[in-house]
Design goal:
eight-stranded mixed sheet; binds zinc ion; Glucose Oxidase, domain 1; 16 strands; alpha/beta
Length: 468
């Protein structure tokens, strides 16, 4: 009896395996992963982007160089047409000086800081110095007396929530301090702001990122401070509430510069008027090499094109491979792309049916964040079994990516997927000097590219066409 059962189970398993092997989607996914893992070029492309071109701050020469490089790679990989969509981007330079010292009793303790992106320099590039007030919440400033803040430097010191398994959510829960802290502090009369770096790691690296000044409020200098130094300061304040901190920075903003999104198009055979966009962002912060953020997304995008050409895939819909500009400090590339897409939807028969983004690092892929209607979400979730052999298990609703997020407002709404790599180490590197090529793992990067390309063909094959 037992033997019969085992035999039956074995036969059934074999039947399922045979069915999976002959399923055209399974075969397609297998060929995509095989191509990425045997002939992959994403890692060498990332080396060129990060080592030969370097970091790519919006408005910089290296960002312009990266646009040329991205265009050339897309042409080389066989895109039907490649063009630059012009975008005016902000221009800001970090400068050569970012110094801060804590004066604690008789001791002088140097603090590791770097300017937040977009910060003004200190007046005349000279040092400012003041007592420190620490808060954990931007709104806490409202409850303090003006005399407690006036003339001081505000330390925003709320750590990313360690209990959230989704590190992106922990980041999202803390980043308001970086975005809004400087203007909130200035409104209350402060002369400067220090913001605890956005990372779970207790390290000595300042992690930069954009701030947003409010128009009607005077602009004060703001810097990211390493988590180790933020912790040191907060402890020192317990015994020395009158300790002082100095800050000196010579960062500066300039006139906007004309750059653009790099777009490579591959026209579909069956439904050429239906567009699926896939991309990452070309710009990066300037204190590392923008390897995970978002060099990985750039080379994932290029590799998706290369893989699909290499395996002889013929897309039904028109695929657009997009390297967005200016995600980090304005998202002007993403906004302009969506503005043009809305015009295409209205004034021609082109319709944007899908969009995908990779902007969460080059780590081992876990799955996708789905931003779509209920029915489209159900279609994407029906692919779980197909992706199971590749350890892709996460099919969760969530934001798909900053660059493609403005496409949400289109009517009909495109189905949007964000590639979700494992996020536990992402913020160790994010926006820091350690976001370099050496910290990206070749095989993990290739698995991400394959997963990205696989989802693209699934969207191309199985998205329903919008009803007229
Ligand atoms: Zn990014």
């Amino acid at each position: 009896m037992l033997r019969t059962s085992i035999l039956l189970v074995t036969l059934l398993c074999n039947a399922f395996a045979a069915q999976a092997e002959s399923n055209p989607d399974s075969l397609l996914l297998r060929s995509i992963y095989d191509e990425a893992l045997t002939n992959g070029e994403s890692y060498e492309n990332l080396r060129t982007l990060t080592k030969d071109i370097g970091h790519r701050l919006s408005g910089s020469q290296s960002a312009a160089d990266a646009m040329q490089w991205g265009s050339a790679v897309m042409r080389g990989y066989g895109a039907d047409s490649v063009w630059i969509m012009p975008v005016m981007v902000p221009s800001w330079t970090r400068g050569s000086i970012a110094r801060s010292t804590a004066y604690i009793g008789q001791k002088q303790v140097p603090l590791r800081v770097t300017a937040l992106g977009g910060s003004v320099g200190t007046p005349n590039d000279q040092s400012i110095r003041g007592k420190v007030i620490m808060v954990k919440d931007v709104n806490a400033l409202d409850t303090l007396r003006a005399s407690a803040i006036a003339g001081r430097i505000v330390l925003f010191n709320r750590a990313m929530d360690p209990v959230l398994i989704n590190t992106g959510a922990a980041y999202g829960g803390a980043v308001d301090q970086r975005g809004n802290g400087a203007s909130a502090a200035a409104k209350a009369g402060a002369i400067g702001a220090l913001v605890r770096s956005m990372t779970h790691a207790l390290d000595t690296l300042p992690h930069t990122g954009a701030l947003r000044y409010k128009d009607e409020i005077n602009r004060i200098p703001a810097a990211a401070i390493s988590t180790v130094d933020a912790t040191t300061l907060s402890h020192a304040l317990e015994n020395h509430p009158d300790l002082e901190v100095s800050l000196q920075m010579n960062c500066a903003a300039f006139d906007d510069v004309l750059q653009g999104n790099v777009i490579g198009q591959w026209t579909g055979t069956e439904k050429p008027n239906e567009i699926i966009t896939i991309g990452g962002h070309l710009d990066s912060w300037d204190i590392g090499e923008g390897a995970h953020d978002d060099g990985a997304g750039v080379v994932h995008t290029l590799e998706a094109l290369r893989i699909l050409k290499a395996i002889g895939y013929q897309p039904k819909r028109t695929l657009r491979f997009v390297l967005f500009i200016n995600e980090e400090n304005g998202n002007r590339g993403g906004k302009e792309y969506a503005r043009k897409a809305a015009i295409e939807n209205e004034e021609s028969d082109l319709v944007h049916v899908g969009a995908m983004e990779s902007d969460a690092g080059g780590f081992v892929p876990r799955g996708f964040r789905i931003d779509a209607t209920d029915s489209a979400t159900a279609i994407v979730r029906s692919w779980e079994g197909l992706f199971d052999p590749y350890n892709i298990h996460l099919f969760r609703r969530g934001g798909a990516g900053v660059d493609i997020s403005p496409l949400k407002t289109l009517n009909p709404r495109p189905t949007m997927l964000g590639l979700s790599p494992d996020g536990q180490r992402y913020f160790d590197f994010h926006h820091s000097s350690q976001d370099v090529f050496e910290n990206v793992h070749k095989r993990e990067l290739e698995l991400g590219a394959a997963t990205f390309a696989a989802a693209l063909v699934m969207l191309d094959q199985h998205l329903p066409s919008p009803q007229p």
